[in-house]
Amino acid sequence: MAPDTPRTLDELFATDALLQPEEREIRDTVAAFAARRLRPHVADWFEAGTFPARELAPELGELGLLGMHLDGYGCAGLSATAYGLACQELEAVDSGIRSMVSVQGSLAMTAIHRYGSEEQKQQWLPGMAAGELLGCFGLTEPDFGSNPGGMRTRAKRDGDDWVLDGAKMWITNGSVADIAVIWAYTDPDEEGGRPVVRGFLVPTDAPGFVAREMHRKLSLRASITAELNFDGVRLPADAVLPGSRGLSSPLACLGEARFGIVFGALGAARDCLAAAIEYSRSREVFDKPLAAYQLTQAKLADLALEYGKGQLLAIHLGRLKDRGELTAEQVSAGKLNSTREAIAIARECRTILGANGITLDYPVLRHANNLESVLTYEGTAEVHQLTLGKALTGSNAFR
Question: Is 378 a catalytic residue?
Fold first, then answer.
């Protein structure tokens, strides 16, 4: 008996019915660009540990993907759900590519758009939206990841100027950026007598600014990661983002990036599942296709179910965000679920491919390696568990 025509994952869960025509068009446009321009090269980029960010940024800008959820200043002003779907198609190719777009739009551009002066917005956002200028976002430090409030980077007043000293770590786009959004404690403010976290716009050609690209990574290899150091970097008075005040400012930007991961990680999971399904149908074991064995089908069914549930949650969260109703706890729930299930899907798909699954001829182990980072950055799985725990119990277990 001939096998029935297989259904795609999105057909199985009928998720297209939940999307608006414009959202489907944006998704399909990004998928087509990714298939033509990114997918043929990503294994080579990963193997070489490089990514042509400067070359690709204008093309991504032309598609409207940089800061696409922001309004004005050359930004596309599209829905949160459309942005999430674009992230999903980019991460279906590689998490590093989605990271580059996320850092540019959801972190650096969002910080300027939300907290910057009109002059700062006019100076930086149009060029960043077009991909002519690249940005990075410096919050994490060598000794402070999950606890950003412990940061040691300081900005001190010197006459009308600011002088910046410190270091940041694991900064995507850091060594190719034109402008760095750096978060630092200022001198004790006049009102409360305590240091305050503020955001600063730091041109990367400023004297005392040093970016060192990080190598020997086993994850996110098709991505540029850097360590930043500031040694007496002198900045003018208007370098500060005037609307930024307190740790809530950078954390709000992280919320935007986490939302993209809710969708993005599922793109990696979907790509792994598609590869495993295709492989299982063509690979013969004991004279019949691997896909015809009950154990293989049981694996695929369970993995598809987790993907489908994650996709339904992601779309629901997108709708909440589009209505302005999404909470930080809900973003944590989505990020925790998508990353945790995506990495489990990638690992199990690797078992279906057997030894072939460890090569760059197939995407699954590359995705699994990348998802090790995605599980950790923008808040570790444990941080998001505690965020949900606090919401459920009212007790703060972070300290």
Answer: yes
